[in-house]
Amino acid sequence: MKRVDFISELHTRTQRDYVQRVVEHDKAECATKAKQWGFDYWDGERQYGYGGYRYDGRWLSVAQKMARHYGLKAGDKILDVGCGKAFLLYEFTQAVPGCEVAGLDISSYAIQNAKEEVRPFLIEGNATELPFEDNSFDFVYSITTLHNLRCYDLEKAIREIERVGRGHKLIVPEAYRNEKEKANLLYWQLTCEAFCTPEEWQWWSRHCGYSGDWDFIFFE
Predict the structure, then answer these.
(1) What is the pLDDT of residues 40-62, one digit of tens each?
(2) CATH no. of 2-17+54-214
(3) Is the CB of residue 154 less than 8 Å from the CB of residue 171?
């Protein structure tokens, strides 16, 4: 398993009070609402999710780094599994002019409120059943999505990413390396189902025959 770091610089910009997350609100109630993947999760109060997920251009540098690393070019087909509002997918159209993009997300709200320029290329669906032919995409990525699946669906999703990708692949779940990061992850998360270390994600890689790269979100 190869790890490539595209996300940490962006992720660490946000300051998080992990303990406050658990003591200030009813965490179980917040998680239940978050898992509806609707307005509350994306644009409601912070205790339910993003607290307002709006485009501000921050994902452009990530798209540029990925494009350079994987040598993406005009005509390449790019798929985002768990695209949300598709801000990163939009940035790929800027970083790689002439690429073809597609996105899938389980949230109808996210797709309806996605970046307008790429909204026509998005579909509502589940990562466990990607509605694409084998070897359809030159680059398939999934960022902060697959840890939201239980093990039986996680296996299906990883195998699906492998199936539809004919080129580069990247999966970026939340993970932990020590007890402090595990506690912070437990405090902060609202939707996580697969709590794994990088070594455990490596096991998933072997188990599912996944040939792509990994990056991880750590709560330090």
Answers:
(1) 999 999 999 999 999 999 999 99
(2) 3.40.50.150
(3) no
96 vs 101: CA distance, rounded Å: 10
Confidence of residue 1 (pLDDT cuts 50, 70, 90): low
DSSP track, 58-109: TTHHHHHHHHHHHT--TT-EEEEET-TT-HHHHHHHHHSTT-EEEEEES-HH
pLDDT tens, position by position, 129-164: 999 999 999 999 999 999 999 999 999 999 999 999
Residues 6+ apart with CB under 8 A from 134: 163, 164
* Distance of alpha carbon 1 from alpha carbon 169, whole angstroms: 12
Strand order in the sheet with 2-3: 2-3, 213-214, 165-172, 137-143, 77-81, 100-105, 122-124
On whether the CB atoms of residues 76 and 96 are closer than 8 A, the answer is yes
- The b-or-e profile of 25-50 (16+ CB within 10 A means b, else e) is eebeebbebbeebbebbbbbeebbbb
Strands 2-3 and 165-172: unpaired
What is the pLDDT averaged over residues 72-91? 98
Residue with tokens 């780094």: 65
Please answer whether residues 113 and 42 qualify as being in contact, where contact means their C-beta atoms are separated by less than 8 angstroms: yes
Residue recorded with tokens 């159209």: 93
pTM to 2 decimals? 0.96
